[in-house]
Specification:
transmembrane helix, elongated, transmembrane, membrane
Length: 146
Amino acid sequence: MSEYKEPASVKTPWHLWLVGGLSVFWNGFGCVDYIMTATRNAAYLKPYPQEMLDYWLNMPTWMWAAWAVGVFGGLFGSLALLLRRKVAFPFFAASFVTSSISMSFGFLDKNAPRMEGANIMSGIILLIAFLLALYAWWMSRRDVLR
């Protein structure tokens, strides 16, 4: 009679801890930015020009929702990655998709005020969101995430 053996678990690669840890800080900052803006924290918003504040604080509800899914999806994806859960990929994918939608709308809106370097920063944010989703998908494919 043969004995059933559990499949050998895949060892967690060192880079998962590095990527997961850095992404918690990165996405955590996005969550802080969202919360401080949504709660209209005067000290946090003080450096921004009034026309930017007027635009941000009067965004339609769907833009606030897309922004929330983008930042909190990224944070939840980061935590799921550190917990080695496959749900990291859907969280990161939702973060990338909703961030792409909201940033595209802001970019195409002719009435939106422009800040120097904002387009570059938006591109960096989207690139990082895409790369995190790709990384989570890759870790899932390698059975590192369960």
